[in-house]
Amino acid sequence: MGETVLIVDDEKEIADLLELYLKNEDFTVYKYYTGKEALACIEANKINLAVLDVMLPDIDGFRICQKIREKFFFPVIMLTAKVEDMDKIMGLTLGADDYITKPFNPLEVVARVKTQLRRYMRYNTAEEAEAFEYDIRGLTINKETHQCMLYEKELSLTPIEFSILWYLCERKGKVVSSEELFEAVWQDKFLDSNNTVMAHIGRLREKMQDNSKNPKFVKTVWGVGYKIE
Length: 229
Fold this sequence. Notes:
Blueprint lengths: L3 E5 L3 H13 L3 E5 L2 H10 L4 E5 L7 H9 L6 E5 L4 H9 L4 E4 L4 H20 L7 E4 L2 E4 L4 E4 L2 E2 L4 H12 L7 H8 L10 H13 L9 E4 L3 E4 L1
Helix pairs in contact: 1-5, 2-3, 6-8
């Protein structure tokens, strides 16, 4: 790929692990354990994306993100052991593009790095044409190739399952009712007693290993429908 990724984390094991995984994907990696070193690196090198730990021994990740946004527009992903909503809101308000809570799967971090870089490169090189691919936090679905990947591993979906997922991705952030989903995918009239959509959503979650009680991707809005956000 050739893009450069900055990693800043005072937990050496985490920084080293992310460096290994990103280098395996042909990224050029700058790795530091303090904020001061990271800021010096940003001034001296061309950075395409930064992965910042919130808690650092000298300058916290929020402050680094704020300094980056004074001059640069490349994507920033925040890492933190905290799960409080205010921390997330603060990071995003200061200009972060994504937020990952520890502990995490390094493959997910790599997937999110790729997602943010694709969005950034596409936004800065050309106007976005009609979407034929969506990439949502490591879930990639391509209409032209009819492939669906989750953290770089292909999911074996039936045509119906693919159509359901594609329809929800097209309407990311919006709630889609069972009636709308059924009539769009099956091209037939929906009946109130029809549990077909629910059954297919259940199988889709199983294939994605998405916990039905706390799903990460296909979420249920009780009494309304489903959505991906």
